[in-house]
Input
Amino acid sequence: MRDQEAAATEKRPKDRPWLMRTYAGHSTAEASNELYRQNLAKGQTGLSVAFDLPTQTGYDPDHVLALGEVGRVGVPVSHVGDARKLFQGIPLDRMNTSMTINATAMWLLALYQVVAEEQGADLAQLTGTTQNDIVKEYLSRGTHVFPPQPSLRLTTDMIAYTVNHMPKWNPINICSYHLQEAGATPVQEIAYAMSTAVAVLDAVRDSGQVPPERFGAVVGRISFFVNAGVRFVEEMCKMRAFSRVWDRITRERYGIEDPRQRRFRYGVQVNSLGLTEAQPENNVQRIVLEMLAVTLSKDARARAVQLPAWNEALGLPTPWDQQWSLRIQQVLADESDLLEYEDLFEGSRVVEAKVAELVEGALAEMARIEEMGGAMAAVESGYLKSRLVSSHAARRARIESGEERIVGVNCYESTEPNPLTADLGTAVHSVDPAVEAQVVAALENWRSTRFQPPFNHPRPCKALERLKRAAAGTENLMEATLECARAGATTGEWAGALREVFGEFRAPTGVSAAPVAVAAEPGTPLAAVRDKVHRTAADLGTGRLRLLVGKPGLDGHSNGAEQIAVRARDAGFEVVYQGIRLTPEEIAAAALAEDVDCVGLSILSGSHAQLVPDVLERLRRAGASDVPVVVGGIIPAPDAETLLRSGVAAVFTPKDFGITGIIGRIVDEIRTANKLDPLEVPV
Output
């Protein structure tokens, strides 16, 4: 008996912990390099590079669409010189680097490779991941550049190149993370991510660039980037279901026999959608629960984890906030006994039943997508986008009705003063507006000196011409891209050359096909708002009120704009919504051409301080200063006050979760702008 007790208490060998990362980057390559080195010194075991929106969408910092976006949500990387500064003092052959980059993934990998070569690294030893999932960009993040088929070619060429030259690199990170942010259910997450994986693997196989006997190496390097929400039991079951579906696809569709190559390999960032501006201290326990969903089950444990900070619903986190998220991971890995045990859920009837339910639902949805011609066809038809918009609308409706409870938002709203947010000026990190001018000046200097000592790059025009010829033909584009990187070409020049050949793509918005998510029976809040809309239109002598929903700049996170557009439509507005990536000039012109009664701007990237005043000024110059402008997004309170003083009629932030109430407020602002008496209609 004593021997059994001794054996039971004997210390078990611990599993190796997951890679610990912090998604980071801002302002300049130099500032981001300093941040990375600080985080690595604190115990972070890998890098996760956040690029700014111009870099992600293939524009140089001095492009008109880059106004206000440079260095805001990530680091600007315009050429190999910036890449050198970004990774200075970080030996890339000993680093595992994740890069959140998609449409321009081939370009950023080329810059990374050139810097690694200059460091003397062996390319075969480089480890890391390029996200490179373009499908979810069409559906949720909005940083796509080229049409689906050319985009798929870029992905295919990059995968084939890395298999042959960088065998430890993950050339694609197929993402369900952003699908959940856009409203996907667990079944939709699994089905849409797996359908994307099938489209990519089919394209690589059919390209003929990888011989059949080496196709297992392609499958073995496919990785996934997954979301984990606060319903952590369901989320843990989702991860087990993901693993089961992936094993089935790789075995049955592609004939992969090696179980190591069939392993579902994934990294995770836990849910940012569920973080709240109200009582943001509650976000800490949400983050912990979400982390447990992807770490508790050994058989479905993430290989890499990055956690958001508690205050990301308020603005950019500070280095201290990022450290807090890192320490959450370290406490679980180093202080708890989690890594000492086999899978905790093996044999659970409850878990097995939920996993089977998710697998069945996902396979059925994948079959529907296959009947449409696959993931790319379902993107182009608008099917996938409309399904996500509908799912998100249903979720928002549940929150507004109180069916889905969010602590501090629609229940338990009373709160003591929060010392963490007592000084909002220091609670979040702000990017100095002067940074953009500095980056633009540095780019101009690079263009004029890149072919002179000490750089001595050849003039890039020949490399760019070769890239265009390759794009017009069938050769792998990676070698031509590397030549552009070595020649000192810029991000905008590389993407511009490909735009000339491939064209650009505007993804379907999914708004028109979204069904009504909130009832408008007599006595309901939506019915009251509909009455306000109709009475106001009658008072103004117009058939219907018209609302322009605009997304200025490069912020592609369109979920909020889409939900406003759908609810305004259901409330009786005629909605003008042209999707993402518009200049202030285009938005002002559309407002005049469509003779709208209100302009609603949605900005989540932090560029509101530059873009909103630009729209206001253009409307004033055009004689339309009487058209009210409302703004929604992640906008700190001091910035909101500045916008209101500049002439914005109303500012909405994540704490304003009631969309029907927002639409009612918009009607009120239209009445005020037109000097109409208020309507005493409860909303």
In short: The first strand starts at residue 19 and ends at 21.
